[in-house]
Amino acid sequence: MSESIDTNRRGFLSRFSQPVKRTQQAEITPRLVARPPHAVDEALFVRLCDGCGECLKVCPNSVIELDAQLAQLNLDYNQCSLCSECVKACPSDALHASVPLDINLRPDFTQSCDNYLQTECQQCASACPQHAISVQDDELPHINNELCNGCGQCRISCYSNAILMKLYNKHYR
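RE: above sequence
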């Protein structure tokens, strides 16, 4: 027998933890579109979401829509209040309360930002409930990706329309 067997306790227990370690290191499928709050991993979401539309019926801000029978967020005209009503309404568990509350969208500040154009403005920073935006004189605002949850309140508050919401897959940065 060329392979030695580790019979001590540590070796025995480490053999059982190997499948767990591999599961924790499993690839996370990147999102191609924004999903409602508490959406499970994209590969699982695509399998679980049956397009029933219950989430969009209960959304108080009307930011959930169906595309190809899958729920997705559209923050073009409103923000997500993160109320989690969609999670409560989801019968398939494609939206699940155990998933961290992050919409995976982040603001992208364009050069039409008033602050960048030397007109002092703090609208986006003031509107951010997470305090994830900082503004320096004559610069584009800076976003703290760890604090931001992608709700879109900054975008709605910007009267210059200088904020685009872009998909943010932190595991692929």
